[in-house]
């Protein structure tokens, strides 16, 4: 008798679980709030060339700014429906935790403790980078072990602050840190001679140097001391919103893998017989339905900002003032680390 009652209870619980899985899912609170508001609140850097920096007309430009536009295009079909919220490194996580922003796309290194202890969720990698140092050329320093006794400008609340301290300690070297929230303040201090070096990620160093009056007077040392994968960050309160951000980023990478660009996306949507292309661009509505978005969600994002390769080349690439080669940010088929999960 007890066995029968136990079996009946188990079957009843299984039935409830099956109903919960099979029943219609509701969008989470962030996803609903964004759609009801009609605007994406996107946290970006207060101003770093190539990532997020207002131009002379006040229009935000750079990789991070365009990723915000790509998400807005995926959600609303309109890349202009985004409000940029400039944040320092110290401000960024609090702004996300408090609900001031919906997503943080601001040169943020994805780390275990950030992912597990802040009530936030790291989404995926949009740029692979590594910590480095920039010094004056006339210092004669060619590698970091020659920086003993230097004053180093750093931003507090960053992985770079920790990496710098670890490097000098491990090599029994001395340094004096100067901590300033805004990277532009560090750049000004280096040019004015108030510090001897800046410690931050290599892409940021290149971006900073591109804005100097005399960029050739400064050298970015070639050594790298850390893994700094950048990516968007969201709160843990809404797994469906997490999915939207993750798969929008993945769609841009998938587009490059498939040869879909901002200019040919419309034609490929009409004419391609490739099932991967058809799913990506919404000719087959499978992916849009899975995200509770319009079937053309990825198409709209790609049309707005291009595929991942176009985004990189336009904002950071060799033909920009920053002049970065793609390196680890090449596609996996070209020896890099950029790799889209299968979108099917």
Supply the key terms:
344 residues, alpha/beta, 5-stranded mixed beta sheet, 3-stranded parallel beta sheet, 14 helices, 43% helix, disordered N terminus
Give a brief description.
This protein is of the alpha/beta class. It contains 14 helices and 14 strands.
Describe the protein's architecture and organization:
The structure is a single chain. The chain is α/β, with parallel strands linked by helices. It contains 14 helices and 14 strands. It has helices at 2-22, 29-37, 63-76, 89-97, 112-117, 159-170, 183-192, 202-210, 239-258, 265-271, 275-281, 286-291, 297-305, 308-315, and strands at residues 40-45, 53-54, 60-61, 82-87, 103-104, 120-122, 127-129, 131-136, 150-154, 175-179, 197-201, 218-220, 228-230, 233-235. The strands form five sheets. The protein has a five-stranded mixed beta sheet with strand order 10-9-11-8-12, sandwiched between helices. A three-stranded parallel beta sheet has the order 4-1-5. Helix 6 links the parallel strand 9 and strand 10. Helix 3 packs across helix 9 and helix 9 packs across helix 13. The relative contact order is 0.14.
Describe the SSE topology.
Elements: H1 2-22, H2 29-37, E1 40-45, E2 53-54, E3 60-61, H3 63-76, E4 82-87, H4 89-97, E5 103-104, H5 112-117, E6 120-122, E7 127-129, E8 131-136, E9 150-154, H6 159-170, E10 175-179, H7 183-192, E11 197-201, H8 202-210, E12 218-220, E13 228-230, E14 233-235, H9 239-258, H10 265-271, H11 275-281, H12 286-291, H13 297-305, H14 308-315
Parallel strand pairs: 1-4, 1-5, 9-10, 9-11
Antiparallel strand pairs: 2-3, 6-14, 7-13, 8-11, 8-12
């Amino acid at each position: 008798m007890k066995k029968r009652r136990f079996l009946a209870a188990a079957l009843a619980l299984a039935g409830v679980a099956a109903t919960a899985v099979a029943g219609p899912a509701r969008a989470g609170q962030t996803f609903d709030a964004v759609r009801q508001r009609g605007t994406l609140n996107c946290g970006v850097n207060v101003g770093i060339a190539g990532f997020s920096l207002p131009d002379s007309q006040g229009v935000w430009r750079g990789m991070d700014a365009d990723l915000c536009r790509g998400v807005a295009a995926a959600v609303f079909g309109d890349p202009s429906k985004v409000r940029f919220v400039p944040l320092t490194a110290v401000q960024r996580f609090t702004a996300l935790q408090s609900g001031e922003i919906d997503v943080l796309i601001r040169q943020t290194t994805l780390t275990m403790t950030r992912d597990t202890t802040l009530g936030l969720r790291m989404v995926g990698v949009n740029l692979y980078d590594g910590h480095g140092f920039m010094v004056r050329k006339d210092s004669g320093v060619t590698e970091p072990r020659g920086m003993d006794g230097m004053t180093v400008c750093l931003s507090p609340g960053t992985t770079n602050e920790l990496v710098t301290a670890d490097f000098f300690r491990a090599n029994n070297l001395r340094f004096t840190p100067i901590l300033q929230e805004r990277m532009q303040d560090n750049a000004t201090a280096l040019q004015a001679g108030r510090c001897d070096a800046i410690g931050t990620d290599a892409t940021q160093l290149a971006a900073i140097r591109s804005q100097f009056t005399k960029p050739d007077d400064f050298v970015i040392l070639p050594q790298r001391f850390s893994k700094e994968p950048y990516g968007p960050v969201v709160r843990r309160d809404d797994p469906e919103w997490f999915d939207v951000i993750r798969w929008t980023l993945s769609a841009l990478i998938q587009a490059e893998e498939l040869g879909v660009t901002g200019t040919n996306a419309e034609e490929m949507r009409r004419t391609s017989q490739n099932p991967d292309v058809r799913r990506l661009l919404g000719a087959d509505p499978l992916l849009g339905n899975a995200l509770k978005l319009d079937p053309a969600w990825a198409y709209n994002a790609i049309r707005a900002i291009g595929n991942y390769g176009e985004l990189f080349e336009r904002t950071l690439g060799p033909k920009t003032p920053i002049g970065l080669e793609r390196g680890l940010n090449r596609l996996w088929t070209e020896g890099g680390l950029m790799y889209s999960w299968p979108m099917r």
